[in-house]
Amino acid sequence: MSLHMIYILKFIWKRQFSDSIIKLLNYLIGGNHEKINY
Length: 38
Description:
By secondary structure, this protein is mainly alpha-helical. Helices cover 71% and strands 0% of the residues.
């Protein structure tokens, strides 16, 4: 694997991880249980 590919994979992983945290926070704080799709 090239360094460029590793960078892209890290970027995608971080973004997905951030989205998951945001969804979790919205779930806990907002209580929008129906709107969350994991």
